[in-house]
């Protein structure tokens, strides 16, 4: 009962906007603390009010600078803002620079802004495992807008599309190889393209290439694709969604001069209105719920499997050594574990 009361108290403090309680809860969620998960379960019914904007693109494109300018824009409108900035984890030390807080120091003393940095901890797709949980906490705190900045690793960085209502893909002029690369991945998840550093002479060419790719999407991408804009086979006409009539606009920004951000915010507002009028926001919330459910299920199943392996086969490192020496068959071991979970 005492633990339950403590859980209720923490949840109440977060709902009241207590920054310290929220920060400690986020730390616990990032560490996989079971008590923190219990608090999140109590907060879950109070979430769903915040609008989540994802910001992704190649490294060096200026995602952090754009995030910083959008914070300033929304604060001028009187909106509270949460920021989740995901930084890469070192494969050697396991640490992360978490430098986005350094870039956003102008908002450090603003009580209407909450910035949380997360390390990827080896997760693929540009987000940390705890990113969704942290956005839920910020939502429960009462933040109006939550900006999620991904790590910036390339065309496979599309997890943000399952989390955000609006996804902004940031592109830099003069990086033709990157423009080609996003065809295979990020293009399909972009709701808005932002050409940052648009004062460069290659900006016109970059915009032409993006417009050509958007036109190509109209030709090659029929309505039978899922909520992440990925193809699937012959969807029934009744499952086709109206929000695919949205054509991603292209906005030019110059973060160093604070230019183009009113227009970018307007495009975000237009996309939000489009989703809500077409029922697309509910569809994206369903996509997010599906991704969250699968992530939780995956974590639980892997944890359960590793615990069983530890009891029956010994330490994981020892087992890996046996596999490397060909003394154990990894396929047979996995099949044994899976068969016992059926």
Description:
The chain is an alpha/beta fold and about 350 residues long. The chain folds into 3 domains: about 1-45, no CATH class; about 45-280, Rossmann fold (3-Layer(aba) Sandwich), CATH 3.40.50; about 295-340, no CATH class. It contains 12 helices and 7 strands. The protein has a 7-stranded parallel β-sheet with strand order 3-2-4-1-5-6-7, sandwiched between helices. Helix 8 (about 205-220) links the parallel strand 6 and strand 7. The two termini are about 35 Å apart. Mean pLDDT is about 80; it is low at about 90-100, about 120-125 and about 225-245.
Compact overview of the structure:
The chain has helices at 2-15, 19-30, 34-43, 63-76, 100-103, 131-141, 176-181, 203-220, 261-278, 280-312, 316-324, 330-341, and strands spanning 51-57, 81-87, 113-119, 145-149, 166-171, 192-195, 250-252.
């Amino acid at each position: 009962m005492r633990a339950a009361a403590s859980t209720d108290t923490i949840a109440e403090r977060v709902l009241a906007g207590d920054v310290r309680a929220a920060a400690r809860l986020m730390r616990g969620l990032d560490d996989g603390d079971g008590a923190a998960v219990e608090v999140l379960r109590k907060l879950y019914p109070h979430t769903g009010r915040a609008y989540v904007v994802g910001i992704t693109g190649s490294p060096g494109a200026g995602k952090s600078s754009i995030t910083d300018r959008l914070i300033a824009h929304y604060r001028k409108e009187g909106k509270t803002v949460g920021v989740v900035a995901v930084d890469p984890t070192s494969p050697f030390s396991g640490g992360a620079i978490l430098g986005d807080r350094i870039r956003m120091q102008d908002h450090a003393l603003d009580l209407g802004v909450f910035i949380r940095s997360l390390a990827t901890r080896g997760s693929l797709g540009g987000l940390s495992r705890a990113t969704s949980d942290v956005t839920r906490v910020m939502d429960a705190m009462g933040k109006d807008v939550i900006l999620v900045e991904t790590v910036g690793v390339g065309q496979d960085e599309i997890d943000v599309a399952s989390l955000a209502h609006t996804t902004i893909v940031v592109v830099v002029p003069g990086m033709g190889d990157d423009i080609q690369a996003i065809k295979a991945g990020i293009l399909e998840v972009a709701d808005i393209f932002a050409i940052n550093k648009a004062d460069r002479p290659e900006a016109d060419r970059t915009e032409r290439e993006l417009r050509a790719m958007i036109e190509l999407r109209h030709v090659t991408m029929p309505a039978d694709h899922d909520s992440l804009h990925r193809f699937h086979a012959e969807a029934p006409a009744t499952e086709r969604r109206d929000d695919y009539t949205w054509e991603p606009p292209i906005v030019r920004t110059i973060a160093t001069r604070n230019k183009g951000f009113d227009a970018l915010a307007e495009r975000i507002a237009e996309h939000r209105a489009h989703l809500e009028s077409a029922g697309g926001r509910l569809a994206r919330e369903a996509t997010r719920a599906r991704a969250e459910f699968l992530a939780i299920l995956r974590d639980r199943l892997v944890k359960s499997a590793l615990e069983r392996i530890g009891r029956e086969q010994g330490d994981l490192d020892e087992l890996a050594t046996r596999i490397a020496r060909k003394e154990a068959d990894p396929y047979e071991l996995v099949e044994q574990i899976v068969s016992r979970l059926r």
